[in-house]
Amino acid sequence: MSPPIRFEMRRRTFLVGSASAIVAANIPWRANAQPTSLVGPDNSTVTLVVNGEARGLAIDNRTTLLDALREHLHLTGTKKGCDHGQCGACTVSVNGERINSCLSLAVMHEGDEVTTIEGLGTPQQLDPMQQAFVDHDGFQCGYCTPGQICSAKAVLQEIRDNVPSHVTRDLTATIEASDEEIRERMSGNICRCGAYANILEAIHQASGAQV
Amino acid sequence: MRAFSFERASEPAQAAARAAEVPGAKFIAGGTNLLDLMKLEIETPVHLIDVSATGLDRISSTAGGGLRIGAMVTNTDLAADATVRRDYGVLTRALMAGASGQLRNKATTAGNLLQRTRCPYFYDTAMPCNKRVPGAGCAALGKGAFSRQLGIIGTSDTCIATHPSDMAVALRVLDAEVETTTPSGASRTIPLDEFYRLPGDTPEIETALMPGEIITAVTLPPPIGGRQSYHKVRDRASYAFALVSVALIEREDGTGRVALGGVAPEPWRRPQAEAALPDGANAVMSRLLDGATPTEENAFKITLAERTLAAMLAEG
Fold this sequence. Notes:
The complex is a heterodimer.
Chain A: H1 11-26, E1 43-50, E2 53-60, H2 65-72, E3 91-94, E4 97-100, E5 113-115, H3 128-135, H4 145-160, H5 179-185, H6 196-210
Helix pairs in contact in A: 3-6, 4-6
Chain B: E1 5-8, H1 12-21, E2 25-28, H2 34-39, E3 47-50, E4 59-61, E5 67-70, H3 75-80, H4 82-87, H5 89-96, H6 101-106, H7 109-114, H8 120-123, H9 167-173, E6 177-181, E7 187-191, E8 214-220, E9 227-233, E10 244-250, E11 256-261, H10 271-274, H11 281-288, H12 300-315
Parallel strand pairs in B: 1-3, 2-3
Antiparallel strand pairs in B: 4-5, 5-8, 6-7, 6-8, 9-10, 10-11
Helix pairs in contact in B: 5-9, 11-12
Keywords (chain A): 2Fe-2S, Iron, Iron-sulfur, Metal-binding, Oxidoreductase
InterPro entries (chain A): 2Fe-2S-bd, 2Fe-2S-bd_dom_sf, 2Fe-2S_ferredoxin-like_sf, 2Fe-2S_ferredoxin-type, 2Fe2S_fd_BS, Aldehyde_Oxdr_Iron-Sulfur, Beta-grasp_dom_sf, TAT_signal
Protein name (chain A): Aldehyde dehydrogenase iron-sulfur subunit
């Protein structure tokens, strides 16, 4: 596990905090502002098992898994790119399967095992996939990298589990981790810097290391 | 996103009863389409009923030798299922042609059927859309509108949106049926060819489901064999919606079945067109797309559909 990130009061944080305090002052009581048609509270409690540790949260029902990780648990390794499931920067593993954490409500993950980039390795002992991205320069700005790495690990597992893809020719044969298979399976992770060639090399290295 | 209250349902009948009882309630399963639309406030449910743990996540054989696919089976699990790969290959092919690995791990069978159109004007809340706001008008039909991705047949003068699913196109050639539970607890079976509603004057009504009715399963008849394929043409090689897609089942005697995606508000199949399969792609498409009303921007889809089918037939 990485050391916890210490959040300091910054100018931006302070200004946002002040603004909401002013707005809040004009609303007598927040609950009164809610439409009467809600049939229950607009918030919930949920316990996620994040990187092996049970974490209880009291959250607005609207909180996505991504926002729960970043804003509530301060695990900012998982990135918010498009927030609409198009870029893959928010990819995490839930119960062993990769998903877009931006398109999933935290409240729907009671008891689920969530693994983020912080749970894969440490700076002293990188996960083989993390090491492979370093070895092959599988990034430029690095913003998409946590999602790429979480996705890439799942891709290799999916190939080992013989899950077919769009480019799998024979649906009944054993699937190989070919360039074509890896590229197709990684299409949900966008890299604006265009580090794709090196990402592909990195995944091949990690694939070899796991055989 | 608007605020909403939340509950978990443990069985389908309970979920259906609650959905009928609470105005503005919606089911949520994988959430990959609904949450996207809620963030844009295109969908604004006041109450969500989580149906992901209603015991509908299994694939099993039916007494008649077919397959029963639980409504909550994910797209990945369905595509990877050994029976589906062996006996209903067109379904695996179609599923794997859609979305991304991450999305397929969450997206469910029922949710895939019920996903909304990706028409850019449905998504743009600053533009009029009859599907989003009935009676508002259709920006896609306006002069200079971007209609390249949109429908060419089965559309109306109120809406030219397409149904975006690949899976549904395969299910259509496989003669799938949709099983549901109504709010009163009754079961009903709707053949997929009666499940979707063409827009007509009411593009906001997309399916035959009644308020609160929940999909519990999709059933497939016994395998029909043949060479099964799905060819999707899109603007990039992966992770894009179809310009045109073709689901094809060919038997050795030259007969078979054909359905199209990316061209209509529903998976598009017409039995009279299939009868022309032994005569080739032009004969099929001239019947299947008879009466098409494309825009200037998407008229190419007629040619594209014919050439896609021709290429698939040539492979056989």
